[in-house]
Amino acid sequence: MVTHTPSRRRTPARSWLVLLGFLLAVAVTAAIGGLGVQGTTEEYQNLRQPSWAPPSWLFGPVWTVLYVLIAVSGWLYWRRAGFDRALVVYAAQLVLNAIWTPLFFGAGRYGLAFADIVVLWLLIGLTVVLFGRRSRPAAWLLLPYWAWVTFAAALNFTIWQLNA
Question: Torsion over CA of 156, 160, 161 and 163, rounded to 10 degrees?
């Protein structure tokens, strides 16, 4: 694996291009999730849900903010540490994030989606720890995401149990 040392000189143009790369990676994650929920509003509303389940319209705005924070977090970490093992974990959690929505909505596999979100939650936590070693701001920016995934995991589990 090629790593770049923090002392390696980075031009402002390159830094902005890398930010665009992080935004693109997160946009692809969001797009896969978006494809997984097309036409599923009625499906979500017809599921037996706990009283604390949010309305379906809330997910879009929340995820938009979270995805921006995730991208900026990755970029801030890269600026401090370059490409290293922590960014591999970061990428892995993005993959699991992208897979969850098609599992839950597209396939209706609530148990499998729950397994995915548990591993996702663990990888987000590992990313926070790894990012925190080199860039505290990058780690802090992931905390709202981790909190929302905690909530989403509880909701996923409850919906799975209510609709089994």
Answer: 130
